[in-house]
């Protein structure tokens, strides 16, 4: 399986590190905003080709699939371009920053029959997989999820603290993780409310947001998001259920009393990004729909669209 990766920033390298661990995968092309960065990352991961243009990778016959870790605003158009070029594609979250663009990606996936997967990593973190397995077994039902997504992003910086060329978004990016996960764990969302705080004078985006969700099962979710939080960073999920309480912090899981839960046996890795990439590769090889396909996550983007109309 020959992979091109576009967007060789902090998150792109997480994918490259995961791909190295998957048997039979070759990284053949690296695309990045600058030629210097593309060449450096290509040398680090053994890719034979690098460029600043995605079209260069799509024209190559040694590229079977593409992983997009590019700016949010490019995701939909680039995912469509990949499939139109005959390449399978995994596009990092979010799929799009508008409902119309999300629908367009789904249509292209249906028209081409190619694998189109979206990087909803929470479906793959061992912590959330553990809870999902208990739900499927009938041993646990979500009553409420309380989620905090907190970062300190008053300037355009990436996860490595380096300047970013684009502006992130609390609703279309960070809320997408929780909206999709809540539906994945509790069932279809039937009600959604949102309010936003003041917009940043330079970035032009809301820096704080509060979202309420209700599933058809009756379960509820309260999501707090902030780019103003100068404290512990990341996303913390509290599952309050009918038989237990769990707190998930990325790949780690504890119970309501902070006792660690061993999730090492849930999957072949403790790295959610690697597991996500393994699913992408396996779906292509097996000719099947992947978990987190564009079709599966599309309802999330309809909820985000509906929430945006409330602002």
Q: Which characteristics define this entry?
A:
alpha/beta, 311 residues, globular, seven-stranded mixed β-sheet
Write structural notes for this entry.
With 311 residues, this protein is of the alpha/beta class. The protein starts with a strand and ends with a helix. Helix 5 packs antiparallel against helix 9. The strands form 2 sheets. Strands 8-9-10-7-11-12-13 form a 7-stranded mixed β-sheet, covered by helices on one side. It contains 9 helices and 13 strands. The longest helix is centred in the middle third of the chain and has 17 residues, at 170-186. The mean pLDDT is 95.
Structural class determined from secondary elements:
alpha/beta
- Overall average pLDDT: 95
Percent in helix: 25-40%
Rg (C-alpha, Å): 19 Å
How much of the polypeptide forms β-strand, as a percent range?
15-25%
For the terminal residues, how far apart are their CA atoms?
44 Å
Tally of DSSP helical segments: 9
Major sheet size, sense and barrel closure: 7 strands, mixed
Q: List how many beta strands DSSP finds.
A: 13
Task: Spell out the blueprint of helices and strands.
Layout: E1 2-6, H1 10-19, E2 26-31, H2 35-45, E3 49-51, H3 54-58, E4 65-68, H4 75-84, E5 88-92, H5 99-112, E6 116-119, H6 126-136, E7 142-150, H7 170-186, E8 189-196, E9 208-215, E10 220-226, E11 234-241, E12 245-249, E13 252-255, H8 272-286, H9 294-308
Parallel strand pairs: 1-2, 1-4, 2-3, 4-5, 5-6, 7-10
Antiparallel strand pairs: 7-11, 8-9, 9-10, 11-12, 12-13
Helix pairs in contact: 1-8, 4-5, 5-9, 7-9
